[in-house]
Specification:
Blueprint: E1 4-8, E2 21-25, E3 27-29, H1 33-36, E4 47-58, E5 61-69, E6 74-78, E7 86-89
Length: 92
Amino acid sequence: MAKMYLQFGGAFCGEPRGPFLTVEAEHKESPLPWQERGLSYTATGYGARIPSRYMIKHNGRWRRVYVCQYGNAGTAYIGPSKAPIATVNGPY
């Protein structure tokens, strides 16, 4: 199984300076009903808080991974879109 990492710090998380921390985190695939049917969350595929089919464990709690997508490359994160807890790197 591929690994997923949480990255704390950085400009996206509201902390343009360090300290930066990267930790490996347990994850699972947990698709939502519309994802199982092959549908898109929005008509365009773009948005600030698009749910992914992955969940990641942070502080003993499973959290949904969301994606901010407004071009060819998106940023995956956990937490609210205005103040994300961490960005996520992995096989999404």
